[in-house]
Structure formats: structure tokens, C-alpha cells
Task: structure prediction
Amino acid sequence: MRVLPDDVSVEVREGETVLAALSRSGYGYRTGCTRGGCGICKVDLVDGRVHYPVTIAETVLAPDEAAAGTCLSCRAVPEDDVVIALRNERLRRLNPYLTSAARPAKPTRGQS
Result:
């Protein structure tokens, strides 16, 4: 999965949501309930397809929004390689040891 505007690539495991993949990879952004009930985690699906293994309330994600490419990252499971764009947000590195930008640890004394 590729995330814009930061142009970060993250591996998504089978059955994993967009938000879970980001969290597992050490990234985060502003989210709310993480259960599909508030809509704070809405992102734009630029390319690819997602599905929802659980029903999403139309009050949170209206059919016309979904058709226009909006998805709930907390519930959306990618079906293929997807590109998403955060809305007025940037990714934050919550755990730099999990992100691809992390550097390997320096060897301790006595190790080469």
C-alpha cells in the first residue's frame, strides 16, 4: 500500500485493514473510534480496491462517498495494491524502529 502525500509504502497482510497495517508498520495519523462509527479516519482511495468485512453505517460512509473513492481506513481491507491519500494529514512515525526509515542499530563493543 502506498500512502500519499508522504509517499510511504507499507506492507498489508491478508485480511488486515489499512489502519492496522499503518499501525503495525509504526505509522499513525489522526483517528477516532477505530470501529467504523465516527468517520474521522476517512481517506481517499486513489487506486486499487477495498472491501469491508463488516457492515459500515451509511451515516458514517454514504454510498455516494464510497463510490467517489472515500474509505474508512479502520475497516477497509485492501483487495490488491492500493494507493490512499490522507486528508489534510501527514503520517507520523509512532515507532521509528518499525518504519522503513529506521536505521539499523550500531554494533556494541566486541561485535562486528
User: Anything to note?
Assistant: Residues 19 and 74 are 5 Å apart (CA to CA). Residues 2-93 form a domain with the Ubiquitin-like (UB roll) fold (CATH 3.10.20.30).
